[in-house]
Specification:
Layout (H helix, E strand, L loop, with lengths): L11 E9 L5 E9 L3 H31 L12 H19 E4 L7 H10 L1 H17 L5
Antiparallel strand pairs: 1-2, 2-3
């Protein structure tokens, strides 16, 4: 059994993740996450939510400005599938870049590779995000 020492949290931790692939097989990858305390994680999530809120407020302001100028706002202002998908993919990539230090894939961990992962294997991105959230809120560092 490991002795508990308060005040010396790890800088990072590694988890092996698995998720269903599109062809029915199971994909696996090792992820090295940045450690955050619960308070630090809450502040991180708040900052991510602030970005989402600001995006929504900007869309509302644009619609109000159009109305004030007598112009009909676009009927699907920010609501097209491609726009929603692009925003979601960008937010997922932002999140992953902020919580992951590295992985064991055959490509370097960088923004371009993360964006490719989010686009090609959305369930892998969701698994990375959910695994981190679980580790930070419930303390599960193992598989």
């Amino acid at each position: 059994m490991a002795k508990i020492i308060l005040g010396k949290p790890p800088k990072s931790f590694t988890k092996e993740l698995s998720f269903p692939m599109l062809d029915g097989t199971v994909g696996t990858m090792k992820i090295t996450y940045k450690y955050r305390s619960r308070k630090e994680f809450a502040a991180f999530v708040d900052s991510m939510l602030d970005v989402i809120k600001a995006d929504g407020e900007a869309e509302i302001a644009a619609a109000k400005a159009a109305i004030a100028e007598g112009v009909e706002p676009a009927p699907n202002l920010g609501a097209s599938e491609s726009t929603a998908n692009e925003k979601n993919a960008t937010r997922q990539a932002d999140y992953i870049m902020d919580v992951v230090e590295g992985w064991n894939l055959d490509v370097p961990f960088d923004r371009e590779a993360v964006e490719q992962l989010v686009d090609e294997l959305p369930l892998a991105a969701t698994t990375i995000i959910q695994s981190y959230r679980t580790a930070m809120t419930e303390g599960r560092l193992g598989n």
